[in-house]
Amino acid sequence: MTARSQAIQEALSGMDIGKILYDEPMSRHASLKLGGRVDALVMIESEGQLGEVIQRLKAGNIPFMPVGNLTNIIVRDGGYRGVMLWMHGLDQVACEAEEGGQYFIRAQAGVGLSRVVGLAAAEELTGLEFCTGIPGSVGGAVWMNAGAYGAEIKDVVSSVTVIDGRGEKKTLRREEIAFAYRRSNLPADVMVCKACFILKKGSEAQIRERMSQIMKWRQEKHPLQYPSAGSVFKNLPGLPAGKLIEELGLKGMRRGDAQVSKQHANFIINKGRGTAQDVLTLISLIQEKARKERGVELETEVMIIGEKP
User: Domain 241-305's class?
Assistant: First the structure.
C-alpha cells in the first residue's frame, strides 16, 4: 500500500463505510476501458456517509471527486492522486404526485438515467425521453447539464440537493443554478447527491414510441459496439463537432488502439488495448487541426483528470 493510500485509510478509519478499493486501475471501471490507477475508490452507501467522508478527507487535505457510471471521464495513465467517491450506493428513486397535477421523480445521484427514464415511462410521465440511451448517472447528468435531441436536464430539473465542502447538505431550486451548455456552473466544492425532476402526464404509448425512436437513432449513428466515453467534444454554435471533425478529414484516424470512430467522428473508441495517452493524442491532434484550419477552439465534453505517466 502506498503512503497516500495509507493516509486515506487512516482518514477513514473507524467509519462504517462501503467497500474501498486501493490503488485501483480505472481501466476496470471506466466506459473507455482505459486509464491509470486511483489511490482509492470508495463505494458510498448513503448521503450521511458521503457528508462524513467529505469532512474527513478535507480535514486530511486529501483530494477527492465524485464519480457515477464513469461514462464521461478519462483518467490519464499516471492515475488520480486522491479518492474517487463512487456514488453507486445512492440508488433510491421514487415517483410522487402532488395536488394540482404536478408529478415529480426524485432520484439520488448514483441512479442510472436509464432507470429514471424507465420509471417515467411506466408512470406515463413525459419530459425525460431525450435521456434514452444516455449511459450516465443522475449526478453526472445534472453536473454537466446532459442533453440530446434538443432538450437538456435543465429543462426538467426542479431542484438539486448538494453536499458542500464542509459536508453540509442544502437544496437548490432550479432558478438558483446557472445552467449553461454542457455545464451546471455549480460551485466546484459541492457534490450532487439528489435531483428532483418535474414532469407532465402523457401517453405511455407515445412516450415509448419516442424512446424507441431515439434508441434507434443512437444505434444507427453511434459506435456502441466499442468502448467509448460518448461525445468527446462540445458542439460549436450551428456546427456539430462530429461534422467538423469529418470535414477536417480525421474520421478513422488512429493512434495505437484508439480511433476516431468511422461511424460518428465525435466518438473516440478503444479497439482493444488503447491507453489514455492514445486518446489524448487524438484529442490534441483534432483540436490543433480545428484551430489551424478553421480558427475554432474545440472544447472537450469529457472530463480529463489525473497525472501524466
Answer: alpha beta
Quote the CA–CA distance of 250 and 215 in Å, as a whole number: 26
- Count the helices and strands in the chain (H runs, E runs): 7, 17
CATH number of 3-89: 3.30.43.10
- How would DSSP label each residue in 112-135? BHHHHHHHHHHTTEES-GGGTT--
pLDDT digits (tens, 9 = 90+) for 5-46: 888 999 998 888 889 999 999 999 999 999 999 999 999 999
Considering the domain 93-221, what is its CATH architecture? 2-Layer Sandwich (3.30)
Note the pLDDT tens digit of each residue in 191-230. Answer: 999 999 999 999 999 999 999 999 999 999 999 999 999 9
CA–CA separation, 66 vs 165, rounded Å?
Answer: 12
Domain ranges in the chain are 3-89, 93-221, 241-305
Give how far Cα 216 sits from Cα of 31, 141, 212, 219, 260, Å.
21, 21, 6, 5, 22
The C-alpha cell at 218 is 443512437
pLDDT digits (tens, 9 = 90+) for 48-90: 999 999 999 999 999 999 999 899 999 999 999 999 999 989 9
Tell me which residues are annotated as active site: 182, 231, 301
CA dihedral 13, 15, 21, 22 (to 10 degrees): -20
pTM of the model: 0.92
Between strands 151-152 and 268-270, the pairing is unpaired
For 54, the 3-state DSSP assignment is helix
